[in-house]
Design brief:
- This protein has 129 residues and is mostly beta strands.
- Helix content is 0%, strand content 47%.
Length: 129
């Protein structure tokens, strides 16, 4: 959930999003956005090396995704029993369409893991490891 407010400085709208992320060791994360809690368990490693991730949204059931990466370790494909999500990024980590490379800012299920960059899409904040 997001709320929009008018900025008194630039007279434009900006998004206010309440988002909290908790880390438990290297293989478990919990993200709380407004009233929705999403849990992640990285299987076979941490977020940079795992071969699969289990996701649970609120009180729903766990869904396991197999992770496919390119030679830099960037997640390029997430596959479970019924769906395939394919991702493509430019050299600066911006998400783009996998087929025609037009830019799409849809939120990833998993945080951006391109070349050890973390980008928080909601806030346009980068953290270089």
């Amino acid at each position: 959930m997001a709320s929009f407010k008018l900025s008194p400085i630039s007279n434009t709208f900006f998004e206010k999003l309440t988002k909290t992320r908790y880390y438990f060791g290297g293989s478990c994360e919990c993200e709380v956005v407004e009233s929705t809690t999403t849990q992640y368990i990285w299987i076979g490693g941490d977020a940079y090396t795992a071969v699969a991730v289990a996701q649970k949204v609120s009180t729903g059931s766990w869904t396991v995704y197999n992770i496919f990466r390119d030679h830099l370790g960037t997640i390029t494909l997430l596959k479970n029993a019924s769906t395939i999500d394919e991702y493509s990024f430019d050299a600066w980590g911006c998400r783009r369409d996998k087929d025609d490379w037009t830019y799409s800012l849809k939120h990833l299920m998993v945080k951006n893991r391109i070349a050890f960059w973390n980008k928080t899409f909601s806030f346009e904040l980068y953290h270089l490891n």
